[in-house]
């Protein structure tokens, strides 16, 4: 055995954490979230808790409405 170099030179990056919103792997750009959307969700939640400001219109869901 020549050379006892172990492949441990690579500094382990911090373990990937799942997105706190949806559980998907987090993205670097939106850490610790997976996407800007989830980041906004969290931000909006925080904002709505601190300030009661009207947010931008999100996709409207007509689910839950009983028609006729
Ligand atoms: Zn997410």
UniProtKB/TrEMBL annotation:
Superkingdom of origin: Bacteria
Gene3D superfamilies, A to Z: Erythroid Transcription Factor GATA-1, subunit A
Alphabetically ordered keywords of this record: Metal-binding, Zinc
Cofactor(s), names only, from the UniProt record: Zn(2+)
InterPro entries attached to this UniProt entry: DNA_gyrase_inhibitor_YacG (IPR005584), Znf_NHR/GATA (IPR013088)
Cofactor binding note: Binds 1 zinc ion.
Family, similarity comment: Belongs to the DNA gyrase inhibitor YacG family.
Function text: Inhibits all the catalytic activities of DNA gyrase by preventing its interaction with DNA. Acts by binding directly to the C-terminal domain of GyrB, which probably disrupts DNA binding by the gyrase.
Subunit organization: Interacts with GyrB.
Protein name: DNA gyrase inhibitor YacG
Source organism of this protein record: Chelativorans intermedius
């Amino acid at each position: 055995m020549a050379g006892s170099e172990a492949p441990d030179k690579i500094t382990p990056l911090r373990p990937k954490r799942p997105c706190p919103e949806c559980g998907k792997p987090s993205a670097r750009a939106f850490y610790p979230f997976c996407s800007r959307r989830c980041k906004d969700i969290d931000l909006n939640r925080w904002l709505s808790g601190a300030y009661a400001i009207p947010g931008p219109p999100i996709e409207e869901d007509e689910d839950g409405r009983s028609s006729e």
